[in-house]
């Protein structure tokens, strides 16, 4: 049986870590984040709530989603280092179903322009 191995999220005051099979596969500095945004991915029969952390003006971002272990802990933690973050975002992103519902939560609100680049 070959099961898909899910990423785990870990964090401290400086970094968010992506952990797979007990190894850090990627990390980024909280201080590098210039925008935080939420959105949904349409997975045909369900939606997946995601949060992105944009780290440059070109649109490079790291993403977490509600299927990752530690997601809820990261979402709660964001209030501490990101003063003024929108904490009432969930219903705006969750509804209506099967739409992206991109919403900037904190920082330099430019991700929508970058997201729509082709």
Task: Explain how this protein is built.
- By secondary structure, the chain is mainly β.
- The protein has one domain.
- The chain is 14% helix and 36% strand.
- The chain has three helices and seven strands; from the N terminus they run ββββββααβα.
- The strands form two sheets. Strands 6-5-4-7 form a four-stranded antiparallel β-sheet.
- It is globular and about 35 Å long.
Which terms would index this structure?
7 strands; three-stranded antiparallel beta sheet; 36% strand; 3 helices; 118 residues; four-stranded antiparallel beta sheet; single chain; mainly beta
The portion of residues forming beta strands comes to: 35-45%
Strands of the largest sheet, in order across it? Answer: 6-5-4-7
Number of domains: 1
Please state the overall shape, judged from the principal axes of the Cα atoms.
globular
What is the N-to-C order of secondary-structure elements (H for helix, E for strand)?
A: EEEEEEHHEH
Radius of gyration: 14 Å
Report a brief summary of the structure.
The protein is mainly beta. Helices cover 14% and strands 36% of the residues. The chain has one domain.
Question: What topology does this entry show?
Answer:
Layout: E1 8-11, E2 15-20, E3 23-29, E4 35-42, E5 47-54, E6 61-65, H1 71-77, H2 90-94, E7 103-107, H3 111-115
Antiparallel strand pairs: 1-2, 2-3, 4-5, 4-7, 5-6
């Amino acid at each position: 049986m070959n099961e898909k191995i899910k990423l785990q999220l870990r964090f401290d005051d400086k970094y968010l870590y992506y952990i797979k099979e007990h190894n850090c596969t990627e990390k980024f500095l909280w201080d590098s984040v210039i925008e935080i945004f939420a959105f949904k991915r349409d997975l045909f029969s369900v939606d997946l709530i995601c949060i992105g952390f944009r780290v440059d003006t070109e649109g490079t971002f790291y993403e977490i989603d509600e299927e990752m272990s530690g997601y809820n802990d990261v979402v709660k933690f964001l209030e501490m280092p990101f003063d003024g973050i929108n904490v009432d975002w969930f219903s705006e992103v969750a509804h209506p179903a099967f739409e992206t519902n991109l919403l900037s939560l904190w920082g330099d609100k430019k991700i929508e322009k970058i997201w729509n680049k082709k």
